[in-house]
Write a structure and sequence with these properties.
The protein is mostly helical and about 950 residues long. It is built from 40 helices and eight strands.
């Protein structure tokens, strides 16, 4: 690397302050008896506590533009403030796990928007051109023609300095959202001149857009007519084919593959003899994975589907390791067409296992690096896929597991491999024999030593032998080896790699880059990801690629044909021992991944899931107690919560909290954030007392450090309200929700989505209290805001319609209940996957309404649709299943099908007895229904 340029690690741009994320707090009320269904309690928009209205003032500061029209400037800044609130709330409220635009919706919505936009502009065309004379007169003032774009650009530039993430949102959305708020602001008579200026700029923009649309209108409409129907047909009829390669991460064959011909023949024979199951056993780095890859390459035409899965080392239960291997380290779930709505880890894991078990054809699965005996036992007991040949590579062995041992290379093949990488050794047979004997012909060691020799200009085989001798490596076979996977051998490959690290020192950049790979998972990582994770600039790219290529030539790093890179697990271990990972030498990865995990909450959680394995490995590899590591652990906890892995969410949140409690004083806001997140996890786990304790700890800090109208206080009060509602203490839930609203009504405008959320939650509390008129009033207030600021197909609007439907049902107005539930159902069916739980909720509620209307067949049809979804996505003890079973029991009871009614009520009681203690209202109500139905059944 040129001395004129700073090193890669020194010029790395550190991303700004890591935003602590607040976990979703509002839990949906559980499905109870027939009279009620799941109502949509909504979280308080608690994600991203660090960005709020009071901090907006920091961005705006004393910013003035004296050259601009003063009225317009004031009006626009006021509108920007309101728009900022709206966008921020939307940005953080869309962290909900179920939000996803399906492909079908995208296509249909595109054409709908296009048609609406064109029609709207044509409607305005006559008015615009009729005003041309007025426009010309206003233009003579030559004021504000470009004011709005300039002002927006300056605002975005200043926002970028404060928060790059916020600037991205603003740049994409701000200009589209301002007109709504601007028009509200401009109604003030003080802004009359500003209104005329804005009207002029708007008319000008519309006229220009009309001219552009005129030119393409015919072509666009023709395209719409010919394409729209075809796209629908294609989408409807597209088969969900499963690709032959379920994963694309099989390791490449080495440039020189020598000495394994007999091994490959024996592997084929063993697989035929042992019913398509074989464990390839051997010491680390001897070539087990390479032998499996060679079998993969030679026999790939024999298999219909193939998958290569890398199993992580380290601590953890066997099932957890395999879940990470299948769900985080490989794209196998997507290849098997597992729907994105199955976000939660347990559901996704079961879906993958079922899909593999039912996959037809002749298939191959390689499970690489399965070194834990518990993992081997789990594979033997649970991964019994009938149509798969399974090859497992491991440094360990297991009794009764068909195995074949990969030994070190014979001397002639070891020599040939060494000479292929370092041809000069061909003339030094005696010395080469001595060296290979000393290192016991270990494959990884041969390649690393030979490649390093080839890359060194003035370093010889004699020098290498002498240096290894001085290091004591050549006497290694006289030493006792303690490594558990190498008890049958005298060789310790890590000692050879450590020696080579010292003998042929790597450059500072090479060592730094190897460390970055060492703290990431031992899987092939794409060039694009490495480039992004390390924030390589265009000026650095050439030097970065040179460093990568040098490490590949020296044998430290592997590269495949797709420009993906991998560090061998043994080399990873050596690098981490030679260069202990710390926050300082891994800070780029820490900051980038923390922001990636924090940023992904706006979208489908699976968009953020791709960063989870990298962040998990990084947190596990850095033992240092640093606040930045705590922030990364916090954000990782949130993403595991999105994925439904609450135990891992709890693990990483506790790690974050441990660091915060050690470093910060007891009233630090980061502690409040961590307590809040732990509260949310425990609430999701059903441990409401712990949830309450942690939320109270968060509230205690918030009340001490913030003023009484701070939005963080509103968030804590909202969360406490949700916990008390789950506990059944509705009066406390009501008190805390009112405290939330008292704050929000002071700090937000009347159309703020956070207010809508609080009105929604307050409505649900009044519904539970039986005050249906108040419930209706507050739900209407929430609905008015949602309809004012959200798109027609936004899921929160569907949630509001769902809640209105439930209230009208309880009020006895079944027609209005049906109308609102159908509106909710239309949105859910447009934007959610077929197996999404909210679609099941909507079908469930339609079933209840039709039952009250007396149409039992429709009620049964919709309840069965709901039940089918619940049984696909939930485990057998999930409370939503119990609620669905109760509703089915009630319908069958009215149909006088008592045997079926008894079957389903017994199922429901069994679930509630498993989940809840005696005396819980859900269990008590279910037992009452069971007694009633059983009595009817026995009397028939």
């Amino acid at each position: 690397m040129s001395n004129k340029q700073s090193t890669l690690k020194d010029t790395a741009i550190i991303i700004g302050s890591l935003g602590l994320a607040y976990m979703t707090c509002g839990a949906s009320a559980p499905l109870t008896l027939i009279a009620s269904s799941t109502a949509g309690r909504i979280g308080a928009g608690a994600i991203g506590r660090q960005l709020d209205k009071w901090e907006m003032e920091k961005i705006l500061g004393n910013w003035q533009r004296k050259d601009l029209n003063h009225d317009l400037q004031k009006a626009l800044i006021a509108a920007i403030e309101q728009t900022f609130d709206h966008l921020k709330a939307r940005y953080y409220s869309r962290q909900v796990a179920w939000y996803r635009w399906s492909h079908r919706y995208k296509v249909n919505a595109f054409f709908k928007r296009l048609k609406k936009e064109i029609g709207g502009e044509l409607d305005n065309r006559a008015n615009v051109r009729a005003s041309e004379e007025n426009i010309r007169q206003l233009l003579q003032d030559k004021e504000v023609a470009d004011i709005i774009p300039d002002l927006l650009q300056e605002f975005c530039n200043r926002a970028k300095v404060y928060s790059p993430k916020l600037a991205d949102i603003l740049a994409k959305n701000l200009e589209k959202k301002i007109p709504f708020y601007f028009k509200e602001v401009l109604k003030n008579k003080d802004y009359e001149k500003a209104y005329k200026a804005f009207e002029l700029a708007s008319l000008k923009a519309i006229e220009k857009k009309i001219d552009e649309i005129d030119e393409k209108l015919d072509q666009s409409l023709k395209h719409h007519e010919t394409t729209h129907g075809k796209l629908d047909q294609i989408i409807d009829n597209q088969p969900q084919s499963i690709p032959p390669l379920l994963t694309n991460n099989a390791p490449p064959l080495p440039k020189y593959f020598l000495g394994r011909e007999n091994d490959l023949k024996n592997i084929s024979k063993h697989l035929q003899k042992e019913k398509n199951l074989l464990l390839l056993n051997g010491i680390g780095g001897v070539g087990k994975s390479t032998a499996a890859a060679a079998y993969w390459d030679i026999h790939k035409t024999q298999y219909d589907h193939m998958a290569w899965v890398m199993v992580p080392d380290g601590e953890g239960e066997a099932e957890s390791k395999l879940q990470r291997a299948f769900l985080e380290f490989s794209p196998i779930a997507s290849s098997l067409n597992i729907p994105d709505s199955l976000v939660e880890t347990p559901k996704r894991w079961r879906a993958v296992l079922n899909a593999l078990h039912n996959l037809e054809g002749n298939n191959l699965l390689v499970l690489d690096n399965a070194n834990d005996t518990a993992v081997l036992r789990y594979i033997q007991q649970h991964l019994n896929f009938p149509n798969f040949t399974k090859i497992i590579t491991s440094r360990n062995q297991l009794t009764n597991f068909p195995s074949y041992r990969i030994e070190v290379l014979p001397m002639d093949k070891a020599k040939a491999l060494f000479i292929k990488h370092y041809p000069q050794a061909a003339t030094q047979d005696q010395l080469l024999t001595k060296l290979l004997t000393a290192i016991e012909r270990h494959t990884l060691a041969i390649e690393l030593l030979a490649k390093n020799l080839a890359a060194a200009r003035s370093y010889t085989l004699e020098m290498l032998y002498e240096d290894l001798h001085k290091k004591g490596i050549l006497q290694i076979k006289n030493r006792k080896i303690d490594t558990p996977y190498q008890k049958q051998n005298n060789i310790e490959p890590t000692a050879i790699i450590k020696a080579m690290f010292d003998i042929q020192p790597l450059s500072e950049d090479e060592q730094w880059l190897l460390l970055q790979f060492a703290v990431l998972p031992p899987i092939f990582i794409s060039y694009k990801n490495i480039f992004t994770f390390l924030q390589i600039t265009s000026e650095q790219e050439a030097d970065f690629e040179n460093t990568l290529n040098d490490l590949i030539k020296k044998g430290w790093l592997e590269e495949n044909t797709d420009k993906d890179y991998q560090l061998h697990p043994i080399i990873q271990a050596v690098i981490k021992e030679k260069i202990p990972p710390t926050y300082e030498n891994c800070q780029l990865l820490v900051h980038v991944l923390a922001n990636k995990l924090n940023k992904c909450v706006t979208n489908n959680p699976l968009d953020g899931a791709k960063y989870v394995p990298y962040a998990t490995s990084l947190v596990e590899n850095i033992a240092e107690e640093d606040t930045n590591i705590a922030t990364l652990a916090n954000n990782l906890s949130l993403r595991y919560g999105d994925l439904g892995d609450l135990q891992k969410a709890l693990l990483f949140q506790n790690k974050a909290l441990k660091i915060y409690e050690k470093i910060y004083d007891k009233h630090h806001p980061s502690l409040a954030t961590s307590y809040n997140n732990l509260s949310s996890i425990y609430q999701a786990l059903g441990d409401l007392q712990k949830a309450l304790n942690f939320q109270n700890k968060a509230l205690k800090i918030d009340e001490k450090i913030y003023d009484k109208n701070h939005p963080y206080l509103a968030t804590s009060y909202n969360n406490l309200s949700g916990i008390y509602q789950d506990l059944g203490d509705l009066q406390k839930a009501l008190n805390y929700q009112n405290k939330t609203i008292d704050i929000e009504e002071k700090i937000y405008d009347k159309h703020h989505p956070s207010l809508a959320t609080s009105y929604n939650n307050l409505s649900l509390i009044y519904k539970d209290l039986g005050d249906l008129q108040k419930a209706l009033n507050f739900q209407n207030k929430a609905n008015d805001i949602y309809e004012n600021v959200l798109e027609d197909t936004h899921p929160l609007r569907a949630t509001s319609y769902n809640n209105l439907s439930l209230i009208y049902k309880d009020l006895g107005d079944l027609q209005k209940a049906l109308n609102f539930q159908n509106k909710a159902n239309d949105i859910y069916e447009n934007v959610l996957e077929d197996t999404h739980p909210l679609r099941a909720t909507s079908y469930n509620n339609l079933s209840l309404i039709y039952k009250d209307l007396g149409d039992l067949q429709k009620a049964l049809n919709f309840q069965n649709k709901a039940n089918d979804i619940y049984e696909k996505i939930y485990d057998k003890h999930h409370p939503s299943l119990a609620g669905s079973y109760i509703n089915l029991a009630s319908i069958y009871l009215d149909m006088e099908k008592l045997a079926l009614a008894k079957e389903y009520i017994d199922k429901a009681v069994g679930i509630y007895q498993y989940k809840f203690p005696n005396g819980h209202p859900h269990l008590t109500n279910a037992l009452g229904w069971q007694e009633h139905i059983t009595e009817q059944y026995n009397q028939q």
